[in-house]
Design brief:
Chain lengths: ~325, ~300
């Protein structure tokens, strides 16, 4: 009696959750796969009564698109650069924070501050810091009103100013700005995880190493890094997943045009590509791209897990 | 004993005089490194506030000033009117509050079922829920966009609230918390004839309040920071959310924008997040360290 009563009661409690999941999670999974495998699927045309053949042309077409490959390249580059850089910096900062007593708490608070920010809003601040105000067209008769604080600092130290994000700026300069912003944004979460990991490492290991007379560098690479393995793996995996879904940080700096004025969409990413395809009603292409994105994230996660598993059990 | 100790100390002193110098240098370098990094981390915030208080003329000086000569509070008033921040604030607050309340109800009920009740297929269902967490949200968005269009929800508050009410991660988080509450309490309550809902309300919710607070904060921050979905489905003036409105009000990414006013708007949007950070940091860090998701 009680058993069967619990049965239906459980389903009542779960009802709102399951109904919403069915509509907004389960159906989308099925439908996205369906749309991806219908050739040239278009939502508007289907509403108009058109039918579509089954096939894989959405995938092949997406992979042949130059624009898609550009998005893939930008996304991959951002991932491959920002994840190691931010992880390494976060590790250094965490180890440094862990080794001090005075001011540890206030510094920890400062390093967590960028986490609770709005990616678009602070992106606009970064844009202001890098932006050259004036009629700047990279020609000889340019008028620079103010070069932006970053260029001011560069010039103060005797360098020449760089056209970071304005008309005529290079891909390299754009990407540099993005890397700086993304790393700045990624640090707090990584520091939070790594520092709490460091604080839970048993002090005995360090005492033993001191008795053995091991050097600081040796202690770091032989004790700290391996014992931090699971945390490092976690931080790297979530970093890659977030990196492959990069989008809003670029909107923050470049606006919805996703690139400098002379070359809009230059910094478009995988997610940006999906939304562009969706906006032009090409749901078939968008679905194929989303499945490719999912595949990449899955593969990268599995590789990371495998590598880190081997490292953890040194 | 005494002798041994003094011998040890002497030995130590010989060795450590050099080591002490090295340690002081090391400590100085560590603090120097941390100080430099802290300055880099804080600089954008400082620059935002500094710029937001300048006049346009002062902002456009070729050599920037590091604190405004004349503090211009009116930039903040201008920002409020240019970007229509008042309306955006209210929209976002409404969506945030309603979706948080509904989401909490759904999360609590589901977590209770998964933690306390026995039913067929529980294990498989829960594993299935967790598996959906691996799929990037963009994959859902494509279909959800057509679904909400069919429902006629475009440019309504509903479209900003309903599709994101269920978060598998929050259910998971709360279920873990519920599982720590001993079974005996539940059975005792049953013997007393307490209903499930009353038990949930008087025992389980108070005991897992910290997790519920974490969820509330993350959910509110999510509404405050969401950008892509609102831009797609509710980009009219009546329903536009804050992040979208901010970006739209200052569209040009380059050229001659009124930066002081823009920075004032950015500061106003950042202020509530900053306050949450100052007063509720503990809860955010608790939730965040287990999620790896932003907002």
């Amino acid at each position: 009696m009680v058993e069967s009563k619990q049965q239906w009661k459980a389903w009542v409690y779960l009802l709102p959750c399951l109904v919403l999941l069915a509509i907004f999670t389960v159906w989308p999974i099925i439908n996205t796969v369906r749309m991806a495998f219908l050739e040239n699927y278009n939502g508007l045309k289907e509403a108009g009564g058109e039918t579509f053949r089954f096939g894989i042309s959405n995938f092949t077409k997406v992979l042949e698109y130059k624009r898609f490959l550009q998005c893939l390249k930008t996304t991959m580059l951002l991932c491959v650069i920002t994840v190691p850089v931010s992880t390494f910096l976060a590790l250094l900062i965490s180890v440094a924070l862990n080794s001090i007593k005075v001011l540890q708490k206030p510094l920890q608070t400062i390093f967590f501050l960028p986490y609770v920010t709005n990616a678009i809003a602070i992106g606009m601040v970064f844009a202001a810091m890098f932006n050259i105000v004036g009629s700047f067209y990279g020609t000889e008769n340019e008028i620079v009103v103010t070069a932006g604080i970053v260029n001011n600092v560069i010039e103060f130290f005797g360098g020449t100013r760089v056209n970071w994000i304005n008309y005529g700026s290079t891909y390299l300069a754009n990407m540099t700005v993005m890397v700086i912003y993304i790393v700045w944004n990624a640090l707090p979460f990584k520091i939070l995880i790594l520092l709490s990991g460091l604080q839970s490492i048993n002090k005995q290991y360090y005492d033993a190493a001191k008795v053995d007379g091991s050097s600081k560098g040796r202690i770091f690479w032989r004790i700290t890094v391996p014992l931090l393995g699971p945390m490092l793996a976690y931080v790297i995996i979530t970093g890659f997943i977030g990196g492959f879904k990069e989008y809003t940080s670029i909107v923050g700096i470049f606006g919805a045009s996703m690139g400098p004025a002379h070359d809009a969409k230059r910094l478009n990413t995988m997610v940006g590509f999906i939304y562009d395809a969706l906006a032009s009603n090409q749901q078939g292409r968008a679905s194929a791209a989303a499945i490719i994105l999912f595949g990449i994230i899955l593969v990268v996660t599995l590789i990371n897990l495998r590598v880190s598993n081997r490292k953890v059990h040194y | 004993m005494e002798e041994i100790r003094t011998m040890k100390e002497k030995d130590m002193n010989d060795v450590t005089s050099k080591q002490r110098v090295a340690r002081i240098i090391g400590k100085t370098l560590i603090y120097l490194f941390l100080a430099v990094m802290a300055v880099i981390v804080l600089f954008p915030f400082y620059w935002m506030i500094n710029s937001s208080l300048k006049s346009l003329e002062e902002y456009r000086l070729s050599m920037p000033t590091f604190w405004p000569r004349h503090i211009l509070w009116s930039n903040y008033r201008d920002a409020f009117t240019t970007a229509q921040l008042g309306r955006l604030f209210l929209n976002t607050l409404y969506v945030g509050v309603v979706s948080t309340i509904l989401s909490l109800i759904i999360t609590v009920l589901s977590a209770f079922a998964f933690a306390r009740l026995e039913f067929k297929g529980k294990g498989i269902l829960f594993a299935g829920l967790l598996a959906t967490m691996m799929i990037p949200g963009e994959l859902f968005t494509i279909t959800n966009y057509s679904t909400v269009t069919t429902f006629g929800w475009i440019n309504t508050y509903t479209v900003l609230i309903v599709p994101f009410l269920v978060s598998v991660f929050y259910i998971y988080l709360l279920r873990q918390n519920f599982l720590q509450i001993p079974d005996e309490l539940y059975l005792a309550a049953k013997v007393d004839g307490t209903s499930d809902l009353k038990y949930l309300w008087t025992v389980m919710i108070p005991l897992s309040l910290p997790t519920l607070i974490s969820i509330t904060i993350l959910k509110m921050m999510g509404a405050w920071n969401s950008y892509i979905w609102p831009r797609l489905v509710a980009n009219d003036e009546a329903h536009r959310l804050i992040t979208n409105g901010l970006r739209n009000a200052f569209t040009e990414a380059s050229g001659d924008i009124n930066y002081p006013v823009q920075m004032a708007a950015v500061a106003l949007v950042s202020l509530p997040l900053f306050l949450v950070f100052v007063f509720l940091r503990k809860y955010i860090m608790k939730g965040v360290s287990r999620s790896g998701i932003k907002g």
